[in-house]
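Supplementary Text 2. Reproducibility record for the structural model of the 220-residue chain.

All settings were left at their defaults, and a single model was retained for analysis rather than an ensemble. We include the record here because the model underlies the residue-level annotations in Supplementary Table 4.
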Amino acid sequence: MALTGLLLIGFLLMHMFGNFKMFLGEEAFNHYAGWLKGETPDGGILYPIMPAGAFIWVFRTVLVAAVLLHVYSALTLWQRAKAATPSAYQAKRTLSQTYSARTMRWGGVILAGVLIFHLAQFTVHSALTAGSFGATYADSPYKMFVGEFQQWWMVALYAIWMATVAMHVRHGFWSAFATLGANTSPKAHTVLNACAWAVAILLYIGFIFAPVAVLFGWIH
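Retained model, structure tokens:
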């Protein structure tokens, strides 16, 4: 659970960095998207160590495996926690938890559902909301991004989703490092908590910045 969670947080940070290339213009963002897929003249990322276009499939495979393992771990831990819950004939005590900690399970379910839509929208292109998928979008990931986030309701939905992501990451980051043995003292607890909040806030601002810029016409 901890290792796959940290891997997924690392992916989110890389994804956020890629989205900032929207501010460099259409050519830069489209080159970045093509570079990841091995479609650029230089062969793309990790070429010639890997054949052109191979990296993206290896990356997707690892990412899907991490998500599946994360979900499996969550279900396993939930079943163990349920089995350890005292019955109605025994004393039952509710532990003091943050809101993000109490909503981790249902938050994860919501994240999974919206993630499927997000992939259908920007990866498979079967759920684009700004019109049917045509040559304009097919030739320019930049225009696809702009077209989708010119709609205020899409930006609002994305902002809510990213708030859920940030809450999940805040608790997950702290919990992962605590699980791996980093929570060794009150000072370490404070540092971990501060780092968890910093990563969560960074991801939220970083992911919502480009869609908001599109909505207000700063990116067009």
